[in-house]
Write a structure and sequence with these properties.
The protein is built from eight helices and five strands. By secondary structure, the protein is of the alpha/beta class. It has two domains: 6-113 and 178-191, Rhodanese-like domain (Oxidized Rhodanese, domain 1); 118-174. Strand 2, helix 2 and strand 3 (43-44) form a beta-alpha-beta unit. Helix 6 (118-139) packs antiparallel against helix 7 and helix 6 (118-139) crosses helix 8 (165-171). The longest helix has 22 residues, at 118-139.
């Protein structure tokens, strides 16, 4: 199913905030990514456990727009499509995601968070699997070359489609599930807006 998705640039969204609007911004990244830097007042609803109906229930009647953001735009697009299927027609994709927001020099909120970013975890896991697979193929059996070949194919697929299966798997790991103070599941409907 093809969706026509409305986009907004980070600077345009920030302009609405500074003009006194209180837009509802939904961040669909992992809790760890959200804690490291997010749009001020954005609510967290990780794509890994995304519930379109829960999001729809929080929207007030006549809600003008629901701004959906992730790191670069891919996960937000998936979330918008899920919301559209659930009947939420007021979704707007924030172009370039949080990366573009930060590159534009716009303010972010940060929370203390330890550990390694999801992007670095993917690099470490992919590199480790390629390294170990190559060693095993060299010293035990050439059939182990399947491991680095599979990882290489996965990286090519991720580069072409901007969908990384390893990142999706790592995002579900317990060490990436931290509680944040703006967790969507614990927010009340009264705290939906972005503080200006």
């Amino acid at each position: 199913m093809q969706f026509m998705i409305t986009n907004i640039s980070p600077t345009s969204l920030f302009g609405k905030i500074t003009a006194g609007e209180r837009p509802l911004v939904l961040d669909v990244r992992t809790p760890r990514e959200y804690a490291s830097a997010h749009v001020p007042g954005a609510l967290l609803e990780p794509l890994e456990s995304f519930d379109s109906l829960r999001v729809a229930a929080l929207l007030s009647p006549g809600q003008q727009s629901l701004y959906v953001i992730c790191q670069s735009g891919t996960r937000a697009r998936t979330a918008v499509e899920k919301l559209e299927v659930a009947g939420v027609k007021c979704c707007v994709l924030v172009e370039g995601g949080t990366s573009a927001w930060i590159e534009a020099g716009l303010p972010v909120e940060r929370q203390q968070v330890g550990g390694i970013s999801l992007e670095r975890q993917v690099r470490i896991a992919a590199g480790s699997l390629v390294f170990v697979g190559t060693l095993l193929a060299t010293f035990l059996h050439p059939l182990f070359l399947v491991v680095p070949g599979f990882i290489g194919a996965g990286l090519v697929f991720a580069g072409i489609t901007d969908i990384c299966g390893m990142a999706m798997l790592l995002a579900r790991m317990p060490w990436n599930q931290i509680h944040t103070r703006n967790d969507f599941t614990t927010c009340s409907a009264g705290s939906k807006g972005v503080a200006s």
